[in-house]
Amino acid sequence: MESQIDKDGCRVAYEDVRDDNTDSNWAVFKYEGSTIVPGGQGTDYEEFKKLCTDDTRLYAYVRVTTGDAMSRRTKFTLITWIGENVPALKRAKISIDKTMVKEIVQNFAKEFLVMDQKELEEGYIIEELRKAGGANYDAQAE
Q1: Cα–Cα nearest to 78, from 4, 1, 14
Q2: CB neighbour burial string for 67-79, b if at least 16 within 10 angstroms, e if fewer
Q3: Which of 19, 37, 78, 101 stands 20 to 30 A from 94 (CA)?
Q4: What is the pTM of this model?
Q5: What's the sign of the alpha-carbon dihedral 123, 127, 85, 35?
């Protein structure tokens, strides 16, 4: 069965994370049957990580503040999570379905494909975004 996406619902969640006037810093897009729908949003990164279980596949749009003493900036990332117990056919559909998600989620500094909880550690994500972010004035102090 061909996958679909709730464009309006997912767009609302995406724009909420991008909005500087909201507290939301992540939104999840999950599967309900063959349809990708908003699956929650929040402010606590650890709450997001709890949604990434061995039996789930989902997409997440995450806001992270990076930078140093001279320059603070907001970065966004698109994370694709595939749990280790997700069947092969559903794993294969992830890359095809991601194109629909990217029609809505268009602004991000880095994309991650994650299948291991260790790679979801917030510190790792922030460090990778920092590397992709340009100037790092803290490096001069080291």
Answers
A1: 14
A2: bbeeeeeebbbbb
A3: 19
A4: 0.89
A5: positive
Check: CB of residue 106 under 8 Å from CB of residue 73: no
Sheet of strand 110-114: strand arrangement: 4-5, 35-42, 26-32, 57-67, 72-82, 110-114
| 97, 67 contact by CB (below 8 A) | no
Distance CA 130, CA 142 (A): 16
Q: What is the pLDDT of residue 134?
A: 58
Q: Which residues contact 12 (CB under 8 A, 6 or more apart)?
A: 38
pLDDT tens track for 86-131: 999 999 999 999 999 999 999 999 999 999 999 999 999 988 888 8
Q: Are 79 and 112 in contact (CB under 8 A)?
A: yes
Measured distance CA(128)–CA(110) in Å, rounded: 8
Is the Cβ–Cβ distance between 29 and 94 less than 8 Å? no
Residue type, 27: A
What 8-state DSSP symbol labels residue 94?
H
Sign of the Cα torsion 101, 103, 108, 112 reads positive
DSSP 120: G
β-pairing verdict for 26-32 and 35-42: antiparallel
